[in-house]
Amino acid sequence: MRLIGLASTAALVAACSGGGGGGTGPEKEQAKAPVVAISPADGSGKAKPEQGITVQATLGELTTVKVQLGGKDVPGTLSADKKLWKSAGNLKPNASYAVEAVAENDGQTSTTTSSFKTLKPAASFGLEANIPWTGQTVGVGMPIVLHFDQPVKDKKAVESALTVESEKPNTGAWYWYTDKQVIFRAKKYWEAYQDIKVTGRFAGVKAAKGVYGMKDFTIKFKVGSSNISTINTRTHRMVVKVDGKKKYDVGISAGKATERKYTTTSGTHVTMEKENPAIMISPGIEKGEPGYYREVVPHAVRISYSGEYVHSAPWSVGSQGRANVSHGCVNAPPAFAQWYYNQSKWGDIVDVTGTDRELEFDNGYGYWQKPWKDWVTGSAFDQAVSTAPGQAETPGNAASTPPTPAESTTP
């Protein structure tokens, strides 16, 4: 029994000692090279622009990612853990990209490359027209109206690519009037004397099946003086304030209201254009018929599509301040009308009260007629956005052709 115990002890000592038996223990595990995956894959010929580029290190960390388009670097962001890089924004359609990613893992480095091409769209979309246009100076009530050359089905994709920045922050919302027109209106009037920039990062944006934007655009315009006029058709007075100070309080003559078409619309109008002279023709009445007229009217400022103007009316001076005798326009004294014409610009406010015919929100730029809560629901996201400055600069050119207004009708 004692011998067995001694033998067992000796065996245990031998097994646990590090003696000079020449053993080396388990071999050290070899370091593995980093593993990187790039999407779109190398050789792709129809990559989707809206999916962008991702570079992911499934083993190790990314140290350098370089993406080029036509010799220029494509921006992107690297995650905090250095495992994932994503391109910023959409890719340009029908374009060739080159990706080079360097990764490191436990002292070993590797370089992974990919070259691919984005799909060629079946059709492209972009701006057909816009107001205001670059360089224009407008009034405090001016909307931003964009007309597209293709119907937009994915309104969220297009709206998310649009930004409005103003020097003096405001809140606004986009309103989809049709599939080809979207309008931006602020919650409150723009503050006077500031720059505003509209950016559309449209390159690679999918507007509809097979339809992509090919280039970005930028529109830059200015807000000038605050010209706000109030017209009371019952007292026959028009008051004009410039930058908050009263400049004029004059007698006017509004629509005689014998028929609805001869009734001046009540509501918040926005000046649209100026004509000197304007040719005004009786609506719906042919030459030779009772009530026909064709007048050459000086110093006319349009305030609606339905043919309402503030204009000079020397023929009705005796009624101005006393009675409403016009066919729907605001007849004004010649000297004041000339001053008002020279002072006015697109986007000034003309607020009319006193009649039972309300201005439709889409009659001219009467967008202020729609309550704010209803306006916001016209957004693809059903929400307002801030115009605070500091958003990313986008290169590009904007269309500069204003839409053609409706024909003049009533004097």
TrEMBL record:
Kindly tell me the pathway this chain contributes to.
Cell wall biogenesis; peptidoglycan biosynthesis
Q: Which residues form the L,D-TPase catalytic domain?
A: 227-353
Q: Where is the composition biased (Low complexity)?
A: 398-411
Under the heading SUPFAM superfamilies, the entry gives: L,D-transpeptidase catalytic domain-like
In the UniProt entry, which residues are flagged as the active site? 311 (proton donor/acceptor), 329 (nucleophile)
Q: Where is this region: Disordered?
A: 383-411
Q: Which UniProt keywords apply?
A: Acyltransferase, Cell shape, Cell wall biogenesis/degradation, Peptidoglycan synthesis, Transferase
| Pfam families for this protein | Big_10, YkuD
Keyword Acyltransferase applies? yes
Give the protein name, as stated in the record: Ig-like domain-containing protein
Q: Which organism is it from?
A: Actinocorallia libanotica
